[in-house]
Automatic annotation (TrEMBL):
PANTHER family: ALDEHYDE REDUCTASE. It comes from Alishewanella agri BL06. This is Alcohol dehydrogenase GroES domain-containing protein. Pfam families: ADH_N (PF08240), ADH_zinc_N (PF00107). Belongs to the zinc-containing alcohol dehydrogenase family. Its cofactor is Zn(2+).
């Protein structure tokens, strides 16, 4: 199937139209017309080459929402017209212990991400959601709940699941004290989800610029990371902190904020951090952990949770040709919401 997307052609990350082909349907494939795609900071890291060399031309995008256009002969769960979604992964071995327990993101053989990796069958490089169409095997397609607004759902597929998964793993519920570092795409979903789970949420930000937005999302307070007196006063105040900062930084300013046995979960920076101060860890049996997106079943769970609890990402709709501008804004980090591309703005020719 001939289609079009916006690709990066080198690490300078200037995105431009790119005509390419989606594979012919295999028996277990679903062909999707993409209606909306969220813009994740990971898209920017990837096309910039922050995580190593990339197979250009590369089409990013892993917060994909659309409608089923056609299905392969063996597909049982989807039919033409269904409202569906695709997140950060499009294949895994489906056989290892991690896949068996629905933690495909930790597949022992490695996942096939939605863009930038060879397809497990034909070796063709996967291309993401900044495009008109995608073809994905049935097991990796999600269903959009009936009452969910398609235009608002996209960021749940990465920002939502990436923060929902640690909130569930560390059993956040009524009375939990949760800190969220960085109020961007992931951070704003962490606040909304933790609040909906009954937690008391504090946003830890670089300035108070986003305070009104944080409170409107359900946060109880905002802590400014450069305000030493306030940070000292908040010692031992949290059971769980979710750190979404997208660059190398100092986590040792956040660990003293954890209570005894508390955990700081890093979901942001993928790579080195500043030198670690172990004193807060040792003195309070505090932990530092990491977490990667979520499995397919858990991604369906967060979609259903959002529909049930009326939790929606704050989306700023953009046209496909505004993507380079959107990437510049993401780099600045001043956005307490998600850019979402309205794919109707991408001319198929
Ligand atoms: P984003 O929208 O750009 O938000 C990041 C936030 O971090 C900013 O809004 C800002 O919040 C804060 N920040 C930015 N630069 C900073 C700096 N230099 N120092 C301290 N804080 C800074 O990004 P995102 O889409 O949420 O993604 C965040 C990170 O998560 C990215 O690195 C992305 O690759 C990663 N990620 C990981 C997973 C996973 O599975 N673990 C999944 C998706 C994304 P304040 O203004 O409030 O300080
Ligand atoms: Zn993402």
């Amino acid at each position: 199937m001939k289609t079009i997307g916006y690709a990066a052609f080198s690490t300078d990350a200037v995105m431009a139209p790119y005509h390419f082909e989606r594979r012919a349907l295999r028996p277990n494939d679903v062909a999707i017309e993409i209606l909306f795609c969220g813009v994740c900071h990971s898209d920017l890291h990837t096309v910039n080459g922050d995580w190593g060399p990339q197979p250009y031309p590369l089409i990013p995008g892993h917060e994909i929402v659309g409608r089923v256009q056609a299905v392969g002969s063996a597909v049982v769960h989807y039919k033409e017209g269904d409202r569906v979604a695709v997140g950060c992964l499009v294949d895994s071995c489906q056989q290892c212990d991690q896949c068996e327990k629905h933690a495909e993101q930790y597949c022992r053989t490695g996942i096939t991400p939605t863009y930038g990796a060879p397809d497990r069958v034909d070796g063709v490089i996967t291309q993401g959601g900044y495009s008109k169409h995608i073809v994905v095997r049935e097991e990796f397609v999600l269903r959009i709940p009936e009452n969910m607004d398609l235009a608002k759902a996209a960021p749940i597929l990465c920002a939502g699941i990436t923060t929902y998964s640690p909130l569930r793993t560390w059993q956040v519920g009524r009375g939990s004290r949760v800190g969220v570092v960085g109020l961007g795409g992931l951070g704003h979903m962490a606040v909304k989800l933790a609040h909906a789970m009954g937690a008391e949420v504090t946003v830890i930000s670089r300035s108070d610029q986003k305070k009104a937005q944080a409170i409107a999302m359900g946060a109880k307070a905002m802590l400014i990371s450069s305000d030493t007196a306030a940070m000292n006063a908040a010692a031992s105040a949290f059971d769980l902190i979710i750190d979404t900062v997208p660059v190398k930084h100092d986590v040792s300013i956040y660990t003293p904020l954890l209570d005894v046995d508390g955990t700081l979960v890093i979901v942001g920076q993928v790579g080195p951090l500043n030198e670690l101060m172990t004193i807060p860890l040792i003195m309070g049996r505090r932990r530092i952990a990491g977490s990667l997106i979520g499995g397919i079943a858990e991604t369906q769970e967060v979609l259903n949770f959002c529909a049930e609890h009326d939790v929606y990402p704050d989306c700023e709709m953009i046209r496909m040709d505004q993507i380079n501008e959107a990437f510049s804004r993401l780099k600045e980090g001043d956005l307490a919401r998600r850019f979402v591309i309205d794919m109707a703005s991408l001319n198929p020719n």
